[in-house]
Design brief:
The protein is of the alpha/beta class and about 400 residues long. It has 16 helices and 13 strands. The site of magnesium ion (MG) has 4 residues, from helix 6.
């Protein structure tokens, strides 16, 4: 296999800084107080205040008067990976509580009143395990970056941008694994833009989702001569296939483990998990041209995306087909959309057109053209910046 394990510097750093979140679901005040005091005195842990957090590393739960229903909650918390490690405590330590608790997946049972040494020992075991798994993760796992590309309108150059962003990133560093995913169901054009015959699309992959590993993914995806792996959208409707809910999000999330960069031509979003995909993205590029209807769409899209909780700083507006003498200047556009234009890409119809018509990248058609230079500059800034980003455990709290 040509794949090479890339150990990114940011992951290495995180092995020294394992920091685990802790929450208490404890009703008895004294018990909560003594637990808080103990945990606050421990290195490697912090109390997570946010009760709506998606995930917590350690939860201490007090079993109250209805153990049966509590055990059900416990099982589902653990199964759905909301809680990594669960500790229980209860005023009663009878077998009818202890046994089902351990069966449900609890790691330790703290007696009351709380015994400090017992608690410290249990937490230290968790920390040790996390540090070990962090270390092995660091040597085997990438944490690729997703760049979502979205058009303000059809025809503004979204696919051109996605294709040339992915291939330009690859041109910056041949050793990186770069994927390009086409979300435009039925109307995906990515393979056409790159003159590729692809056999497998993501619907096919969805049918084999349980065996998603690096070797399968890379063999299923078509590889372009630039080095980029391409995953096309299904081009026909198959009535029989039912992909799991949130499948595209799960797929992209898994792909982060196998690829360094994943560029997504988002097209028309058809998966309910789009908000999650944006949240998981390093950046969301909103491709537009400097026309009034497009800019109004940009404003609406920015609002909808940030309403899902995605930070505004992640959204970057690309003014494609830019001409200096245009009727609307970047500063006027800024007034309309309320944010800065992130970048302009020069209008170069002949280069853009011959790229499409020959199934080639803009770099291949004319590496010195103004438009190729714009893509190179963008790709260079992304590849450099990515190395400096902190990652590891902190990715959950970004
Ligand atoms: N920088 C550019 N200069 C000139 N034309 C461009 C540029 N980028 C894209 N185009 C042209 O715009 C048209 C639409 O591009 P495409 O990528 O298919 O858009 P979309 O995916 O938004 O529908 C194509 O003819 C393409 O060649
Ligand atoms: Mg398109």
């Amino acid at each position: 296999m040509n794949a090479k394990v890339v150990i990114s510097k940011d992951l290495n750093k995180s092995t020294k800084a394992t920091l685990l979140s802790v929450q208490f679901a404890v009703k008895t005040e004294e018990v909560r107080d003594s637990l808080s005091k103990i945990v606050k005195g421990l290195d490697g842990f912090f109390l997570l205040e946010d009760k709506n957090a998606d995930r917590v590393d350690v939860l201490v739960l007090e079993i109250g008067n209805s153990p049966e229903s509590e055990f059900q909650t416990i099982s589902s918390l653990l199964q759905e990976n909301v809680v990594e490690t669960l500790f229980l405590t209860s005023a009663r330590m009878t077998p009818d509580i202890l046994l089902p608790a351990l069966r449900a997946g609890a790691k330790e049972f703290f007696q009351q009143p709380i015994n400090k040494d017992e608690v410290i020992e249990a937490f230290q075991k968790v920390l040790l395990k996390a540090r070990q798994s962090d270390q092995s993760d660091a040597s085997t796992t990438r944490l690729g970056k997703i760049f979502s590309v979205l058009g303000a309108k059809g025809g503004v150059g979204t696919t051109t941008f996605a294709v040339n962003l992915a291939t330009s990133i690859q041109a910056q560093d041949k050793d990186k694994l770069v994927a390009l995913v086409d979300m435009n169901i039925l109307l995906g054009e990515v393979p056409l833009f790159l003159d590729l015959e692809a056999e497998t699309d993501w619907e096919e992959i969805g049918k084999n989702f349980s065996r998603l590993d690096e070797a399968y993914l890379q063999s299923a995806m078509a590889r372009h001569s630039s080095g980029v792996y391409v995953l096309p959208a299904p081009s026909k409707l198959e009535k029989e296939t039912h992909l799991p809910a949130g499948f595209l999000f799960q797929l992209l999330r898994s792909m982060r483990r196998f690829f360094d960069y994943i560029v997504v031509d988002s097209g028309m979003i058809i998966d309910e998990s789009y908000a999650k995909i944006f949240a998981e993205s390093e950046a969301i590029y909103l491709v537009s041209i400097l026309s009034l209807p497009c800019l109004i769409n940009v404003r609406k899209l920015q609002e909808s995306i940030s309403a899902t909780g995605v930070g505004k700083e992640k959204i970057r507006v690309i003014a494609n087909r830019f001409e200096k003498r245009a009727q609307i200047s970047p500063s006027e556009a800024t007034k309309i959309i309320g944010t800065d234009i992130g970048m302009t890409i020069p209008n170069n119809y002949s280069v853009a057109m011959s790229a499409i018509n020959n199934g080639k990248t803009i770099l291949d058609i004319s590496g010195n053209s103004d438009v190729a230079r714009a893509y190179k500059k963008l790709a260079a800034s992304l590849v450099d910046r990515a190395i400096e980003r902190p990652g590891g455990v902190f990715r959950w709290f970004r």
